[in-house]
Amino acid sequence: QMAGGGTGGPGGLAVDRAGSLAVAHGGMGCVWLFDRLGEPMLRIRATQGLRTTNVAYGGPDHRTLFILEATTGSVLAAPMRT
Fold first, then answer.
1. What angle do CA 10, 15, 19 make, to 5 degrees?
2. In which band, very low, low, confident or very high, does the pLDDT at 7 lie, cut at 50, 70 and 90?
3. How far apart are CA 40 and CA 33, in angstroms?
4. What is the mean pLDDT of residues 45-55?
5. CB of 57 within 8 A of CB of 36?
6. Pairing relation of β-strands 40-45 and 52-58?
7. 3: confidence class by pLDDT, cuts 50, 70, 90
8. Measuring CA to CA, how many Å separate 78 from each of 1, 7, 8, 16, 56?
9. pLDDT for the residue 74
10. Residue 75: C-alpha distances to residues 37, 51, 54, 64, 79 (Å)
11. Is 61 exposed, middle or buried, given 0-12, 13-18 or 19+ CB atoms closer than 10 A?
12. Closest CA to 43 of 70, 59, 25
C-alpha cells in the first residue's frame, strides 16, 4: 500500500523537471507527489470520482499536471510549480 492507505493502488506515473514523481492512486481519487528522494510532498484530490488512473505533464510550459479520472472519463488539470 502507498502512503495514505485506501483501496486500489498506484497507477500512472509522471516525472517533472525537478525529478519529482507524480503517482495516480486508483482507489483514493488522488495523485501523490514525491520528491526526487521519495519523500511525500503533496496529495492532489480529484474533484470528481475515485479512479485516478493516469497522469501526464503538459501545457505550454509543461507545468500543468493532467489527471485522468476513469469513473467519469474526466481529464482534470492541476497547475504545478515545476
1. 120
2. low
3. 6
4. 93
5. no
6. unpaired
7. low
8. 24, 23, 22, 13, 11
9. 95
10. 28, 12, 10, 12, 13
11. exposed
12. 25
Give the integer Cα–Cα distance in Å for 16 and 27. 23
Count CB neighbours of 7 within 10 A.
Answer: 10
* Amino acid found at 61: D
**For every residue of 20-72, which 3-state class applies, written as one string?**
CEEEEECCCCEEEEECCCCCEEEEEECCCCCCEEEEEEECCCCCEEEEEECCC
Q: Do residues 58 and 66 lie in contact, with contact meaning Cβ atoms separated by under 8 Å?
A: yes
Give the span between the Cα atoms of 1 and 42, in whole angstroms. 17
